[in-house]
User: What shape does this take?
Amino acid sequence: MSLRDELTTLLRTGYPELPPAAREVMERAGRDLAASGRAARARQAGDTAPRFSLPTATGATVSLDALLSAGPVVLTFYRGAWCPYCNLALRALQQHHADITARGAQLAAVSPQIPDESLTLTEKHALAFDVLSDLGSDTARQYGLSFDLPDDLAAVYDSFGFELQRVNGGHPRTLPIPATYVVDRDGTIRWAFVDTDYTARAEPSDILAALDALPSAR
Assistant: This one.
């Protein structure tokens, strides 16, 4: 089953179980975010990838330059371990991690969560790639991905018990639009997936095809 199929199944089975009032708020916020044009303003293929240095789940620091020194980079931004769609996407990337590294690429995932939350996620899903903490979403902002939750949606997330105040280290309102980039060794973004719909994620097969299409892979 493709990641797209898994995401669709989750949406069809889980979403209808949410309270109608919460669904209304979530749908309105989704429409407003899509209409904002933020996805179109995010970094895209052909842009230079903003550099960063971020802490890992185990307390080390990883920079984009260090990752690029070893090969091209697959960089994915996700909302957090509280998001079931993010969990599906990360598990799918783990399942294809060997295929990514076989192409000489490095994989890193970035969220606004504190390192302790990233460590829990890493252990839960046995992730073999770096999970980085972007507290305050400063790196996501450089990529044009960060946005602030509207008041009513933040209240809905609080009612779900997501504890964003705690897991995001005092930055409960700022999240990234889910996105995945393939960055060539020269720092150029060669492929990008950016979608304001948090139930849509980059398909691993498309990521692998983008790696195969890199100039250095020809």
